[in-house]
Amino acid sequence: xxxxxxxxxxxxxxxxxxxxxxxFRATQLFRWMHQRxxxxxxxxxxxxxxxxxxxxxxxxxxxxxVASEQVASDGTVKWLFDVGGGDAVETxxxxxxxxxxxxxxxxxxxxxxxxxxxTGHQGFSRNLSSxxxxxxxxxxxxxxxxxLSLAPGERAVTNVVMMGMGEPLQNYAALLPALxxxxxxxxxxxxxxxxxxxxxxxxxxIDRLRDDCPVALAVSLHAPDDALRDDLVPLNRxxxxxxxxxxxxxxxxRAPRDFVTLEYCMLDGVNDSAGHAAALLALVSNDxxxxxxxxxxxxxxxxxxxxPQSELKRSPPARVAEFAAVLQAGGIVTTVRRxxxxxxxxxxxxxxxxxxxxxxxAARRERAMAIxxxxxxxRRRGALGTQPGQRA
Length: 392
Ligand code: SAH
Ligand code: SF4
Known about the structure:
- By secondary structure, this protein is of the alpha/beta class.
- The protein has two domains: about 60 residues, DNA polymerase, domain 1, CATH 1.10.150; about 300 residues, TIM Barrel (Alpha-Beta Barrel).
- The protein contains 14 helices and 14 strands.
- Helix 1 packs across helix 2.
- The relative contact order is 0.13.
- The site of S-adenosyl-L-homocysteine has 15 residues, from strand 10 and strand 12.
- The site of iron/sulfur cluster has 11 residues, from helix 4.
């Protein structure tokens, strides 16, 4: 049985053709699934009975089983989806006046292993499939439409951010059809500026995304120099800051009226001094001597959301304000993210997807270590005072 949630519209058309059906049938079917949330082929009244029989025999529209749902006092909703094998992933809906943002996961766990991230701490388990990525949106959109009693045609989810668990650009093959389904006018019809891919900096895949599907790009920077970033975001050892920012500039060639959002998690005493702010400002400003143009960017300061075992602290608000002021004085649009869903641990970086089989955690850490670039031995000791084993 094939799960039809895995296909973008072209993929579905190709599959329909294999079944001996005209490609336009795929558009009808796609609309039933993604515009009306219908999973029962029998209810798709404008499809021929013979086609519906074929569908029943060969395919399913299979949502993800919901392991739990929590609603915070500010209206934030967090779902935990069971993806099998003892793994679970989290999806968060953040309502705001005039919009609803859905934060979607791309992997069970994450191999990048950033020091300040609960998902990274958990290690890498596996990539989600396209169907599992889209199923998060499918469930949220139609569950919320029912709950909020929205008028026909009104959408619950107006924006998607790939900022849940996992590194989306380390799961590119599954990500791409899912993004296309989100953007498709016969699917969720989200404009490309309302779909954001957030990455810790997988440089070659930033280029691929630019060529295939240039949605809004957010880059998790967190440090203005390589020594500190090597320590906080281990992927930096493979793709250092200069290469990462060059990829951001190339990205914007495709979308010259856009900007890149740089995310910066504020860690007390680690990356939050006025000196760090000045260095960050220099990094994104025009540098005539080096022949480097400025980067069209906005900077989003994220107050660190602590979790047990992180051994890090949130920067005090006054320090965050001071940091923001340095950037703003340099002409960079800078915002400070409000934390949401505090009472249900739904904020950035707190998503760990309660894993049922805790005994697998050690094995997953090992795998994460193997997947992420092995640093040269000399650097492994110095900058990396904190390997995952030690942090556990
Ligand atoms: N892997 C991608 C997307 C998921 S993480 C990435 O790293 O960009 C989404 C955002 O949450 C990133 O900017 C990440 O740095 C941030 N984040 C992770 N842990 C956090 C924490 N404990 N507190 C605040 N932000 C955190
Ligand atoms: Fe992975 Fe992003 Fe967490 Fe880093 S911050 S460990 S890349 S999910």
